[in-house]
Structures are given as C-alpha cells and as structure tokens.
Amino acid sequence: MGNAVEQLALVKAKIADAERQADRTAGSATLVAVSKTFDAETIRPVIEAGQRVFGENRVQEAQGKWPALKGNFPGIELHLIGPLQSNKAKEAVALFDVIETVDREKIAAELAKEMARQSRTLKLYVQVNTGSEPQKAGIEPTEAVGFVQRCRDTHGLAIEGLMCIPPADENPGPHFALLEKLAREADVGKLSMGMSGDYELAIAFGATSVRVGSAIFGSR
Q1: pLDDT value of residue 1
Q2: Which residues contact 141 (CB under 8 A, 6 or more apart)?
C-alpha cells in the first residue's frame, strides 16, 4: 500500500467512478476519512492534500489531536462515528460537527441539552443496527422511523440522516437497501453507509457519505 496521500487520491477516483456507474451526480457521495488511531502527523498530509471531512470513533482520542488541527486548517468537518456515552455529550458537542451515532432517548436528550447550552447546532444521524447484532450499537430497524420522529418531536432535534454498519460476515447490499428504505420512510435525506471494503457498493445503493479508513491510512 502506498502512502496516505496516494491512497486518498485512489479512493476519490473510485468514488467518482462509482458515482458514474450509478448515474449519480459527481460529488454526491462525500468521503469521510476515518482517522481513528492515527496521530496528527499522519493525518496532516491528508488534510494538506485537500481532504476536509474526517471521522473518529472516540471522543477522548479526538480531543487529543483535533482541536489543534482544526485551528490550523479551516473548514474541517469532524464526524463522531463511534458510540457516544451520555457523560461525553458535553465534550462531543464542543468538538464534533456531525454525530452519526444517535441511537437512544438518553443520548438524544443530552445532545439537545448540550447544543442549547453551547449554542452549537450539530448535524445528527440515527445509527440503525440493520443486522440486529446484540454486541453492536444502533437502534433496531423496526424502531428507527419512530425514534427519528421522537427525536424531532420530543427533543427538537433535526435528524439529517441514517447510518449503519452491516454485519462483517454478510453481504452488505441488503443492509444498504434496508437503510435507504428506512430513510425514505423517516423522511431523511442522508445515508452514511459503506466502509473500505464496500464503499463503491454503498454508493450504488444511494450512500451520501462513505466512511473509509484503512484504504487511505493503512491497517491499524
């Protein structure tokens, strides 16, 4: 595998090709470069190459590197793509621009409270556990549409999209199709789905953002 800047260019080219293959508008699928476990010095060349959207799994890890990077490079959009604990809501709202893992009432309530307190409006996604895996975060598919509505009605949250992580040992296609169906039913326009091994397929199913880490930065 080449260096991260070379790999970034390759991934972007594959995204553009997948958009063409799916008869989608160029640039309709945003690349979220997943930088979890990589330090600021590894990430910096990728930012310098023009990438501005990044994903992190843990609030505490992100706090160690992103405040300085965001200070040095304007226009960074930072996504939380790992589970959020309610006691980290304050820090998450202060640092992140997008939270993709809203999946229960307590988190929705804490985010609403913190965004009001900090006068920050984040973009929010509901994470759906499309495979109903007991060890994985996310709301059950059968509860997703109702939960999105409660986020809006009860907590005053503007839910922008849905996110999923299909089971590792299954064909991701049906999971992507299910998420797209739920998004239509919930009247949300964004779909965060697809990772290093299946992002091109996710684009064919309508992904508006793909979360790619190892294909850019290498294995962890």
Answers
A1: 43
A2: 128, 129, 130, 132, 178, 182
